[in-house]
Design the sequence.
């Protein structure tokens, strides 16, 4: 699976949009981009995923560039409860050796302040 | 709706002791995973299973064993505990073929080996 690069940390003011970037320049055609977050020592929580098109759900939006080499997770109105570590993961939907498992990096620590 | 249940939540072991971390899910998920998370780091995959009777190694399997006799349970065994195994352990499950194949995580087991 392709590797991802994320900034170590970011700050955001409460009520503003939080835009979290992720580079995945070696992504291949059958690999999806997944975002998870981990709030202070809890188990990670699924946010959103996508292949080519931009995606939106009740939690966030995912913008994937046309060449698929990078993406941005957008939290439209960040709240204090969005303070967490955000993981960008690229993974093939195919099975196989460890292909079914998500490989987590260090992620981006987002701090939302009032 | 319990989801993924891990026991115990906390445990202190002496070097050389053994123990089993329990994980159970009630969502009828075929896939189950064990991750460990060291302080300030991302999650590392220890073992995973794609169904009852089938297990495979992840990134950091040394010092651990798993079994999967039922769909619901996926225990992780530490035979000879070492200080390097001090970590937070997360169990997760997912259902292949569902949108996003979201991983659902347990609340974690904090293990200290002294």
Sequence:
């Amino acid at each position: 699976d392709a590797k991802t690069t994320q900034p170590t940390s970011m700050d955001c003011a409460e009520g503003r949009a939080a835009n979290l970037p992720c580079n995945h320049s070696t992504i291949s055609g059958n690999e999806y981009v997944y975002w998870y977050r981990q709030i202070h020592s809890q188990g990670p929580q699924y946010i959103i995923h996508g292949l080519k098109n931009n995606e939106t759900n009740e939690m966030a939006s995912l913008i994937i560039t046309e060449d698929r080499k990078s993406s941005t997770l957008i939290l439209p109105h960040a709240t204090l409860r969005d303070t967490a570590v955000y993981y960008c993961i690229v993974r093939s939907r195919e099975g196989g050796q460890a292909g079914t498992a998500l490989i987590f990096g260090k992620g981006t620590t987002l701090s939302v302040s009032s | 709706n319990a989801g993924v249940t891990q026991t115990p939540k906390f445990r202190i072991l002496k070097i050389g002791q053994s123990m089993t971390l329990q994980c159970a899910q009630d969502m009828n998920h075929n896939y189950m995973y064990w991750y460990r998370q060291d302080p300030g780091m991302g999650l590392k995959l220890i073992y995973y299973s794609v169904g009852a009777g089938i297990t495979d190694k992840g990134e950091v399997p040394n010092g651990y064993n798993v079994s999967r006799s039922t769909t619901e349970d996926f225990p992780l065994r530490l035979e000879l505990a070492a200080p390097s195994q001090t970590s937070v352990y997360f169990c997760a499950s997912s259902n292949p073929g569902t949108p996003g194949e979201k991983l659902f995580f347990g609340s974690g087991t904090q293990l200290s080996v002294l």
